[in-house]
Each structure stands twice: as structure tokens, then as C-alpha cells.
Specification:
Layout lengths: L1 H42 L10 E5 L14 E6 L4 E8 L4 E7 L1 H48 L18 H49 L6 H29 L7 E3 H18 L3 E7 L4 H4 L1 E3 H18 L4 E7 L2 E5 L7 H6 L18 H12 L2 E6 L5 E6 L7
Helix pairs in contact: 1-2, 3-4, 4-7, 5-7, 7-9
């Protein structure tokens, strides 16, 4: 439409300009020819021979008002009901005026101008209609392909390919989509099967370890040191089992049967272990209970999920804190873990929850997956995980787990 507007506009302007130029050349030549003949008759004392609609004036005595102040040469005069071409020649004795009526010509010229303008708008309207029809015809397969790709919920493995439905350039795009989707499907299938297989196959040896530990603990001839070590092994096996359950739930993307407990009971179960890990580094670990009401103590949460988040955040705080203390604040809406470590820069805060990200100034130890795992669990459970600065030094990680505060 824009191209047609420009081309038609230039063409229409060229037509009108050409008409004006040709008109001026033809009228000038015609009036000059008539002027020469009239002046010959006038100078011989004969009456000038004038065509119909043509008038001749010499001097300015009987000159009509609309011919006054005209410059020598060809001029156009338009009145309300009539139009004239006027040729003025300056002679020594007096100026001469040759007037030729052009009312009918101007009317025809106006009609021609109206036709040109109408043709311009018609061409623009036609280009708009054709453009819309062509755009719809061209965009239709692209829109259809977009809908097909958009409606492929979760990239189903049994979904038919896209390219057989197209036989034009869009078909090449559909083939590219098919190849990309196929690669994504295979990658997702491999990752899902790997996580599921590992999680499933670890259940059996973990159950063997846990049951063996339970049998050994029941023996009376065990000394305290051996019993303590067996308890540690049993506790580690239980923790691995909970991690397997969490990983399996994340891999399947759907609800699985899991043990549930209150936030306070989950914290109490591992509180002493967190204190021991902190004391090894020479820092203190304290808890502040700021809950209100018994209902805050009765709500149940998934043990594998919530315990995995707590362990990752607290171990991360212990790892990065070299002096001071770590404070676990339990609230009615969730919990907060504040440390006195080096803190987190603004740049790291934007990427700290990404997989394998360890920060610009972080240690090369670890894989950078703890915070990413915690974030994925929070997103799945519709909890809110956030990080902020701990004044005057350190960082605070807060988790909002109450239903009324979920994002």
C-alpha cells in the first residue's frame, strides 16, 4: 500500500504537471500567433479579426479591472464564473492585451484533475485490499504453523511432524521446527529417563543400607562408638532417600506420595546437626521463633522438598561464613536464613539461582547446583525464594511457604 501510494502520487502529480506545462506551451504559441496577425491589422488601421471568445485591448482606458497590473507575457485569470488566458505585450505607444476565454477548458481540466485524484485514491484502496488479501494468504500458513507449535503441550513424543502439511517455503521452516523439536524431545527423554532410572535404582541399595543399620543398632554388644557411627550412616541413608524422592518428583513433574511434617518438626530434626557443622568452623548457629498461633505449627509440608531447601540454604550459609553467626528465623509465613559472610554482589544476585553459577568471587569448590535446586523446588511448590543483604554484612535468604503468600 505504501509503495502504491508513493508511485500513484508521483504519477498523478506528473500528469497534472504535464498538463499545465503542455497547456502553457500551446496557449503561448497560439496567442503569439494571433497577436502577430492582430497587430498587423491594428497598425494598418483595419479592425482586428478576432475569434469567438477572444478580445483585444489597446491602452488602459477601457481595460477591465481584472486585466490591470498584469505582467507582460502569458497570465491566467480566474473569476467566479469564468476563466481567461491573457497575453500582454508592451509596445512604445501602449500596452496591448489579448484575452481568450477558457471557461470550458478549465471545467474540462477540473474534471480531468478529479479523475486523476479519484484514480489515485482508487489505486490506494485497491492496493490496501489486495495487500490484505495477499498478507492473509501469505501469513495464514505461518499462523497455522505457529498454532501447531504453540499447542504442542510439553512436546509430546507421539505428536505428528509438522512439515508434511506444507509444500512451500513455510515447509522448510516446519522441517527446521521438526528437527529442533525432535532434538529437544530426545534430550528431555534422556534427562527424564536418567533421573528416573537413577532415582528408582538407588531406592533398593538405600533400603538395604537403612535396614542393615536398623538391625545393627538393635544388637546389644555394640559399643557406643560403633552405635554412633551406625546412626550417622542410617541418617545419611535417610537423607539420600529424601533427596531421591525430591529428584524423582522434579523429574516426573507430577505429584508423588511423600512424607509430610510441620516446619518446626523438620527444623528440630536437623537443628543439632546444623549447630555441629557451624561449631566446626567456629561460628554459632541460632534460631529465632517468631511464629504466632498454634495454626502456624500444624500446617504440613513435603518433608523431602522442604528439608532439601533448608539443607541447601543452611549448608551454603555455613560454607561461606568464616566468622560471626548464622541465624534461622522462623516466621508464620516461612523462614529466613541470615549469615555474616562476605555477602552477594548485585551482579551475582541476578544469576545466583542459575544452574552451575558460582559467582564472580566464589570458590571453585562445588558445582553451583544447590541454590538452583532450591529455586526449582520452590517454584514447583509455589514457594517464594528471595535473597537480600544482611546489614551490616552478609546475606539473607527468605522462603515464603504459606499459601496466602505464594506467587
Amino acid at each position: 500500500m505504501l509503495l502504491t501510494t508513493v508511485v500513484s502520487g508521483l504519477f498523478s502529480f506528473g500528469i497534472m504537471a504535464s498538463i499545465d506545462m503542455v497547456e502553457e506551451d500551446l496557449v503561448t504559441a497560439e496567442l503569439n500567433r494571433k497577436f502577430r496577425n492582430i497587430l498587423v491589422d491594428y497598425r494598418h488601421g483595419d479592425l482586428p479579426h478576432l475569434d469567438l471568445g477572444t478580445k483585444f485591448y489597446s491602452g488602459t482606458e477601457d481595460l477591465p479591472y481584472y486585466l490591470r497590473d498584469l505582467e507582460p507575457g502569458l497570465s491566467e485569470v480566474e473569476l467566479e464564473q469564468s476563466a481567461f488566458h491573457v497575453m500582454v505585450q508592451e509596445e512604445r505607444e501602449a500596452p496591448f492585451y489579448l484575452v481568450q476565454e477558457q471557461t470550458d477548458f478549465k471545467r474540462q481540466e477540473s474534471k480531468l484533475g478529479a479523475i486523476v485524484i479519484a484514480g489515485f485514491f482508487f489505486s490506494v484502496a485497491a492496493s490496501l485490499i489486495l495487500g490484505m488479501m495477499m498478507a492473509r494468504r501469505i501469513v495464514a500458513p505461518v499462523q497455522r504453523l505457529t498454532d501447531q507449535v504453540h499447542n504442542r503441550e510439553k512436546l509430546l513424543l507421539d505428536a505428528p511432524p509438522l512439515s508434511p502439511d506444507y509444500d512451500d517455503e513455510v515447509g522448510h521452516l516446519a522441517q527446521a521446527f521438526d528437527r529442533t523439536i525432535n532434538m529437544l524431545q530426545q534430550a528431555l527423554q534422556r534427562e527424564t529417563l536418567f533421573t528416573s532410572d537413577v532415582s528408582h535404582e538407588l531406592r533398593t541399595p538405600l533400603m538395604v543400607i537403612k535396614s542393615s543399620c536398623d538391625l545393627l543398632i538393635e544388637k546389644d554388644q555394640l559399643d557406643d562408638y560403633s552405635r554412633q557411627r551406625i546412626n550417622i550412616i542410617s541418617k545419611a541413608a535417610r537423607e539420600i532417600q529424601e533427596l531421591v524422592d525430591a529428584f524423582l518428583t522434579l523429574a516426573r513433574g507430577k505429584e508423588t506420595e511423600q512424607a509430610c511434617a510441620t516446619l518446626s518438626s523438620i527444623i528440630q530434626r536437623d537443628f543439632e546437626e546444623w549447630q555441629k557443622q557451624s561449631e566446626v568452623k567456629g561460628i554459632s548457629f541460632v534460631m529465632e521463633d517468631r511464629t504466632t498461633g498454634q495454626e502456624d505449627q500444624d500446617e504440613l509440608f513435603s518433608v523431602p522438598m522442604l528439608r532439601t531447601v533448608l539443607n541447601n540454604l543452611i549448608r551454603n550459609a555455613i560454607y561461606h561464613t568464616t566468622a560471626g553467626q548464622i541465624t534461622l528465623v522462623v516466621r508464620s509465613t516461612g523462614f529466613e536464613i541470615c549469615d555474616t559472610g562476605p555477602g552477594i554482589s548485585a551482579t551475582d544476585k541476578e544469576s545466583i539461582f542459575k544452574p552451575f553459577y558460582r559467582g564472580e568471587s566464589g570458590s571453585m569448590d562445588g558445582l553451583g547446583l544447590g541454590l538452583s535446586l532450591a529455586q526449582r523446588i520452590c517454584q514447583r511448590e509455589q514457594w517464594v525464594l528471595a535473597v537480600s543483604d544482611n546489614k551490616p554484612v552478609g546475606s539473607c535468604f527468605s522462603v515464603t511457604i504459606k499459601p496466602g503468600n505464594r506467587s
